[in-house]
Amino acid sequence: MSITRLLPGRLxxxxxxxxxxxxxxxxxxxxxxxxAAWDQGIRYFDTAPFYGAGLSEIRLGDAxxxxxxxxxxxxxxxxRVVLDEVEDPAARDFGEKGGLxxxxxxxxxxxxxxxxxxxxxxxxxxxxxxxxxxxxVYVHDVAQDFYxxxxxxxxxxxxxxxxxxLDRLRDEGVIKAxxxxxxxxxxxxxxxxxxxxxxxAFLLAGRYTLLDHDRALQRLLPAAAERDVDVVVxxxxxxxxxxxxxxxxxxxxxxxxxxxxxxxxxxxxxHGIGIKAAALQFALAHPATAAAIPGxxxxxxxxxxxxxxxxxxxxxxxxxxxxQNLISADAPVPTA
Length: 336
Description:
By secondary structure, the protein is α/β, with parallel strands linked by helices. The chain has helices at about 25-40, 55-65, 115-130, 145, 150-160, 160-170, 185-190, 215-225, 255-270, 275-285, 300-310, 315-325; strands spanning about 15, 45, 75-80, 80-85, 105-110, 135-140, 175-180, 200-205, 230-235, 245-250, 250, 290-295.
């Protein structure tokens, strides 16, 4: 089942940065950023318990509390339960994403994809978000980047636990849709091959961008489109490197990525366009992608995202990218 009927537009707001990703963000700045998104017409907000051990959910819930619940679409994730017990956030093991939320809340998080933990996670998220219902729930991070060689065992736990619970909750009308939220294509390809349960959407972060899209193009996106499973693109700016930042894959960008970005920016400058516009519109050009949800922690960034969505891009720019092998020859591009 497609989620396009649920989504209020093609641009949403990914709130991972509100969990103090990379830096400690004042509450006032976080609230102002959510308000800026609202003022710019954004009505789809995505969050997760993982983002700062509940901090993103708390801040988002506080900011949205003054708005009618029927006026926006909300998604969060399951797979991690936030406890009252505290620990050192900087000492957590996040696989390849070490130190990602070292400025978040000190509450201990437990990885748990079982049925009982899924239900508990949803209840806890409802409290932190100050709401009575969730629209979309994603199973979070069942992939290699967090679990290494153990990822298939974790995936199996989710398949027999979280997947089935969310499938039932959707069928009962408690939630409207469910899927997986990951940074790798393999778990999504595996899920598409299941006879049941059947997800409605995938949130794929970082794997369908100007910098990294070849693997997703090969099988995942065509198969998702064939099965009517929508893809929401997370991290369309590749952790910030395509928006003037220094991070790629949530870490300091390596030299070869920096060099590629410089080539992309040079072509964008040559054609008189912004690199953010190119990145955002590229991610949305594939027929399988339903929305993109860039993150931000400064209100001014939201206006930039909205403007980037509608910025005219000449066809010659995309031709130049293909000629220089900066994008796949098979990648759909926006049409004027």
